[in-house]
Amino acid sequence: MLSSLSASILGTGSYLPERIMTNAELEKMVDTNDEWIRTRTGIQERRIAGPSETTSDMAAAAARAALENAGIDAQEISMIICATVTPDMFFPNTACFVQTKIGATQAVCFDVSAACSGFLYAMEIARQFIASDPSKTILVIGADKLSTIVNWEDRNTCVLFGDGAGAAILRHREGGRGIITTSMGSDGKLNNILYTPGGGSAAPTTLENVSQKLATIHMNGRETYKQAVKSMVESSLQALKQADLTIDQITCIIPHQANLRIIEAIATRLNVSLNHFHLNLDRYGNTSAAAVAIALDEAARTRNFQRGDLILLVVFGGGLTWAASVVEW
């Protein structure tokens, strides 16, 4: 029997900045080359937001697209949850800025910080709110302007990241299972393999340390790869088990868009063809919380999901954090 408290995705939207930064452009900035980037990451280009374009600007654009896709008005939104690690400012939260920009005056607004896992964390939070009150309509957004926290002199990280936003509208839909199950996890002991050490209360930016670029992304690439593959495979299998499903019943797998080698390793361990994965990292790079949200919107528009199709979303991020969700379209 289907639960009356399910949360379905009614519509999706995304936004990518106009500026395209190619690998050739990066060759002029740091000691790297197109072949090195493509063979090690699968990335060919990424989008970079303009100097005056904020995270909330991108988030609002994705939100408007999702509202249009769902066929609902902003006034129907009762809650906005924005997943980001690059908020417009420490406070107010970015969701409040989005509320004003889209005219969702009835919405309660807050942000979630779970790095690249943020969108699925936010979706699960939304699901729980809808479970307690099925009348709610919730806007979930993943948005990041990573170009503001990238060290453009570090060739190991600057080639990986881009800017963008994705959004989804969640609401109870009679007769639909929606988000069937979500498997989530964290490991704070590994907080130092993918992180931004400065800019917060632990190491505020000062005149004395600004040259150290502490408020930029730091990453242990080898360890991040290992942990990403491990946690994404395990959470995918756990989510499928909880849903009483097998991988061959999944129509499409939408992973975090970080590195093609990571996704290839996951495909091998899940014993599934890479064709089952929706990939766009070659064009957008890693956009953190926005990555899986953008890929979900793109897949929904290009793969022509049918009602009842089963989708597996799986992510990994700094924290460490990870999650996998099985969704009935």
Number of domains: 2
The pLDDT mean sits at: 96
The strand order across the widest sheet is 1-7-6-4-5
Order of helices and strands: EEHHEHEHEHEHEEEEHEHHHEE
**Proportion of β residues?**
15-25%
What's the β-strand tally? 13
Class of secondary structure makeup: alpha/beta
CATH topology of the largest domain: Peroxisomal Thiolase, Chain A, domain 1
Helix content: 25-40%
Largest sheet: 5 strands, mixed
CATH architectural group of the largest domain:
3-Layer(aba) Sandwich
In whole angstroms, the N-to-C terminal distance is 18 Å
Distinct helical segment count: 10
CATH superfamily annotation of the largest domain:
Thiolase/Chalcone synthase
Highest CATH level, the class of the largest domain: Alpha Beta
Shape: globular
Report low-confidence residues grouped into runs of 5 or more: none
Cα-atom Rg, whole angstroms?
19 Å
Structural features, described:
- This protein has 329 residues and is an alpha/beta fold.
- The protein folds into two domains: 8-177, Peroxisomal Thiolase, Chain A, domain 1; 180-328, Peroxisomal Thiolase, Chain A, domain 1 (3-Layer(aba) Sandwich), CATH 3.40.47.
- Helices cover 33% and strands 23% of the residues.
- The chain is built from ten helices and 13 strands.
- Strands 1-7-6-4-5 form a five-stranded mixed β-sheet, with helices on both faces.
- Strand 4 (79-83), helix 4 (94-102) and strand 5 (108-112) form a beta-alpha-beta unit.
- The two termini are 18 Å apart.
